[in-house]
Amino acid sequence: MRPSSMVLSVCAGLALCLMAAPVEAQLQEVSEKRFEFTPFAGYAWGGSFQTDAGGTFPAGSIHLPGSFSYGGIISFLAHMGSAVELLYSRQDTDVEFDPVSGATTTLPGGFAMNYIQIGGRQEFGHSEKLRPFVTGSLGIGILDPKAEELGSSTRFSWSVGGGAKYMFASQKVGIRTDIKLWVTPVPSGDYGVWCGFYSCVATEGTAWVTQGQWTGGLVFAF
After folding, report:
1. CA gap 54, 42 in Å, rounded
2. Which has the closest alpha carbon to 124: 181, 87, 180, 82?
3. Could you tell me if 211 and 46 are in contact, meaning their C-beta atoms sit under 8 angstroms apart?
4. Tens-binned pLDDT, residue by residue, of the chain (222 aa)
5. In this structure, what are the phi and psi dihedrals at residue 190, rounded to the nearest 5 degrees?
6. CB-hemisphere CA count at 13 Å for 171?
7. Dihedral sign computed on CA atoms, order 56, 102, 48, 152
8. Burial status of residue 121 (CB atoms within 10 A of its CB: 0-12, 13-18, 19 or more)
9. Which end of the chain is more exposed for a tag (fewer CB within 10 A), N or C?
10. What residue ranges do the domains of the chain occupy?
11. CATH number of 24-221
12. Which residues pair with 40 in a beta bridge?
C-alpha cells in the first residue's frame, strides 16, 4: 500500500470513530435515563351516582361538576418501554344534588377529589421520539368536603387509560398527554336487611363514581 493511501485510510478511520463517538454517547445517555417527572394539568369531568328515596338523600342524583385538575407523575423506567408510576391528581369542584322533583342545589363549602395511585405504563411503537402507551393503576381516592363540619372519606379506586409521549432531540425534555377513566366505589346510602335462620344483618349498598380526565404536561427525564 502506498503511503498516501495509508494516510487516507487512517484519516477515514479516525473520521468514522469521531462520528460514531457522539452517537454512542447519545445512545448511552438515553439508556441511562431511569426516571421521569411529569407535572400535568387538565380537565376532569363526570362523577355522579343515583340516590333512592329510602336513603340518606331523597331520590335523585349527586354530581361532581367538571373542572380544572392538576398533579404529578413519577415514573421509574424499566425495559421494553415499560415503567412503574406513582401518581397524584387533584380536582377542586362542587357537589350538586339534583332531586327527582325540584331544582338542582349546590351543597355549601366546595369539594376536592384526590387520587393517589401506583400503576404501570407500557409504550408501543419503534419511534424514539413519539411513543403511544396504555396505563393502569390502583390506589385510593380521597373525597374531601371543604366544609369544616364534614370529614374526608378515603376509598379504594383504580384507573385505566392511554396517551402518548413525545421526547425532544435531547431526550431530556418532552411532552405527554393522558386520558383516563377513574372508578371509585362509595357507599350509596341505601341499606338492605338480610335475614337467616338465626339473625338478620343490615348491609349498605355501593355506588360507582366514574370520572374522565384529560391532561397534558412536561416530561423531565433524568
Report:
1. 37
2. 82
3. yes
4. 554 454 445 444 544 444 444 444 444 444 578 999 999 999 999 887 666 655 555 667 778 899 999 999 999 999 899 999 999 999 999 888 877 777 777 777 788 999 999 999 999 988 889 999 999 999 999 989 887 767 788 999 999 999 999 999 988 999 999 999 999 988 765 544 445 445 454 445 577 889 999 999 999 999
5. -100, 140
6. 16
7. negative
8. buried
9. N
10. 24-221
11. 2.40.160.20
12. 71, 217
**Residue 57 cell numbers, joined:** 338523600
- Is residue 162 within 8 Å of 120, Cβ to Cβ? no
Taking alpha carbons only, the member of 85, 146, 83 closest to residue 114 is: 146
For residues 164 and 179, is the Cβ–Cβ distance under 8 A? no
Dist. CA 96–CA 187, nearest whole Å: 17
Residue 84 grid cell:
412503574
| Residues 6 or more apart whose Cβ sits within 8 Å of residue 177 | 163, 164, 214, 215, 216, 217
Q: Is the overall model pTM greater than 0.85, yes or no?
A: no
Starting at the earlier edge strand, list the strands of the sheet with 60-63: 48-51, 60-63, 96-99, 105-106
Whole-number pLDDT of residue 97: 80
